[in-house]
Specification:
Layout (H helix, E strand, L loop, with lengths): L1 E5 L5 H13 L6 E5 L2 H6 L13 E8 L3 E2 L1 H9 L2 E10 L3 E5 H4 L11 E4 L1 H6 L1 H7 L4 E4 L3 H13 L9 E3 L20 E3 L7 E5 L1 H6 L2 E6 L8 E9 L3 H10 L6 H4 L9 E9 L6 H11 L4 E8 L7 E8 L5 H13 E14 L4
Parallel strand pairs: 1-2, 1-3, 5-17, 7-8, 7-11
Antiparallel strand pairs: 3-4, 3-13, 5-13, 6-11, 6-12, 9-10, 14-16, 14-17, 15-16
Helix pairs in contact: 11-12
The structure holds prephenic acid.
GO molecular function, one term: prephenate dehydratase activity
Keywords: Amino-acid biosynthesis, Aromatic amino acid biosynthesis, Lyase, Phenylalanine biosynthesis
EC number: 4.2.1.51
Length: about 350
Amino acid sequence: MKISVLGPAGSYSEIAAHAFLSIVLDAQMPELLYCSSIENTVLSLFEDPCSDNGAVCAVIPIENSIEGAVGVSMDLLLEKDVSIIAELILPVNHCLLVPRSAAQKPDFSPDKIEVVYSHPQGLYQCRTYIRNHLKNASLIEVDSTSKAATRVAEMSAGAGLGAGAGAESVACSGADLTAGSAAGSTVGSAVSSAGADKIRAAIASAAAGEKYGLKAIDCHIQDTPNNSTRFLFLARSEMLPHLKAYADDFNLHILPENLSQTGSGAVFYKTSVIVSPVSDKPGALFKILEAFSDHEINLTRIESRPSKKSLGEYNFYIDFEGSPSDKNVADALNLVKKRSARLKNLGTYGRILSGRQ
Ligand SMILES: O=C(O)C(=O)C[C@]1(C(=O)O)C=C[C@@H](O)C=C1
């Protein structure tokens, strides 16, 4: 059984996978498949699970306490025939990682750093630190925080390993990263990455720093101390009936009926759905929410996402406590189905809170 995560090794997605598996795993540690993007992590579920690119379960970040929804993950939940089998909330403590050679320079200080790499979420979650301490740095978005760490390690290891290998797009400079300008896009200017003497840094986990031989010169640099990211564990929907056999092989207790047996603290069931309201009708969203309220169902999250069909048209992602095997949930879902244009059930799963990193 392979579990796909955003790679390379040292990403928060990998830490989430390990945290999850340490809670639910009794025996063998499944192999991790490191993917180059969140999209490829999900696509691995649609490859032959026995092939090099295939996995049975995928781990993706879905929302962060500072930056909110991870858009690509939200879209993939709608587009792909996947089900949620578990969730985990991971405390995320970012570090500023630099090559040891740079940190050892007598006149080194963070304001000497000229380039900072991270996943966009990492850059946004550290906006205040970047503004205050990394005033002279250009910010470069890469596919993961661990990718950022490898990039810095490779570039410091020698001009050969990637330096000058092409243009890098710069999100914006540290001084420009204000609440208004940071939200999402990469501004298209390109700078050459040549210049082996430049001081580069990555925003990533302490584990990534250790793995790639970088020095953490500052930790807990995110905007709020209790930063956390919620991760989802996905399986291809049509694999669900077979998943139990896979899980049993590995003594993995990831399926809802087994979760309460893990003895790992509070586990309760949640269900996630995506609802497309009938368009342009007064009270359409209200009628959907009323169905949950009338059946005394506690919503834990509601998030809108553009339908991409036309401006002002949205899908609503709704998470709530309970399972369709509860009568009130089944009745509410029947009503929501009648009152909406489309209802996609993403699954019922257990919630597990991980310990601190
Ligand atoms: O880049 C990583 O290390 C990831 O696992 C991705 C990700 C995300 O997309 O939210 C996960 C946790 C942190 O919020 C920052 C980045």
